[in-house]
């Protein structure tokens, strides 16, 4: 299959997923309305049950509609994406940034919570994300570890004490505020989603939380009738900056070290061997280089 064929297939998949989410939202709303129509009947306990079921279904409808917006924006980005443009942004993350309203980055982690995959909507988000990998501190790291949102204002003294290395470096990028929310659940932490420089933290946290929930339930964990996970193709090795991050994650789990130490090992081997860091990382991922 050629690159053009793969792109057309991706567009069709995104459009099909958007239509699926629309249908799911309509079904959830019908269920909610059915329970709301029964609120004035039955006992007090039955009314509480109908209220709870109405809230659950309306929450489900919101998530499906949020996911539909992601898929539609992604399909539009794919239609306008130039395959021959090496500087073009990754379409999925560009769509996420449009939904959230600010530069956006996604980090997925392995079982040891080390970064295994990274993708960003633009140069600012990419640089901010890479700072966390290099410095081993920052909002996405904290959001994954704590399982709750991490918010910081660049220039704040209290936040500077929490991330003494990260925030000054972030200021050099022109970012005023950073917000990260966990992706996954309290039982399974899959990663974190962050926005940079948005302002209005309260509104952004809620919107980002909705997007992260939609991303978790309807993209990362969404299976088809055959039990596969079709939308995970957008997080394959051909997208995002996965090679170095996968190598760092593998080294962290194999050697029991932190991301900064793993990255230092990659760079040291690259320097002594006269190779690019990406080349060494590829060797680690293919298990041709162990760095033991």
TrEMBL record:
SMART domains: ANTAR (SM01012). Residues 207-285 form the ANTAR domain. SUPFAM superfamilies: GAF domain-like. This is ANTAR domain-containing protein. It comes from Hamadaea flava.
């Amino acid at each position: 299959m050629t690159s053009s064929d793969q792109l057309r297939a991706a567009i069709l998949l995104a459009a099909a997923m958007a239509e699926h989410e629309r249908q799911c939202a309509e079904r959830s709303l019908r269920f909610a309305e059915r329970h709301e129509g029964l609120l004035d009947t039955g006992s007090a306990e039955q009314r509480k049950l109908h209220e709870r079921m109405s809230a659950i279904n309306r929450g489900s409808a919101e998530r499906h509609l949020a996911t539909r917006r992601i898929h539609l924006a992604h399909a539009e980005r794919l239609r306008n994406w130039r395959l021959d443009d090496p500087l073009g942004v990754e379409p999925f993350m560009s769509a996420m940034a449009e939904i959230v309203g600010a530069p956006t980055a996604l980090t997925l982690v392995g079982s040891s919570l080390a970064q295994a995959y990274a993708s960003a909507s633009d140069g600012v988000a990419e640089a901010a994300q890479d700072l966390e990998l290099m410095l081993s501190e920052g909002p996405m790291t904290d959001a994954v570890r704590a399982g709750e949102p991490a918010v910081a204002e660049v220039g704040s003294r209290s936040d500077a004490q929490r991330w003494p290395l990260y925030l000054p470096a972030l200021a050099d990028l022109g970012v005023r505020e950073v917000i990260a929310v966990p992706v996954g659940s309290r039982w399974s932490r899959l990663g974190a989603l962050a926005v940079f420089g948005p302002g209005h933290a309260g509104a952004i946290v809620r919107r980002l939380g909705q997007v992260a929930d939609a991303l978790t339930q309807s993209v990362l964990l969404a299976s088809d009738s055959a039990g596969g996970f079709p939308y995970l193709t957008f997080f394959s090795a051909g997208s995002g900056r996965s090679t170095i991050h996968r190598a760092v994650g593998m080294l962290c789990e194999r050697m029991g070290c932190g991301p900064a130490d793993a990255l230092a090992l990659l760079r040291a081997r690259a320097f002594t061997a006269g190779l690019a860091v990406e080349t060494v990382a590829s060797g680690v991922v293919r298990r041709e280089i162990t760095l033991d």
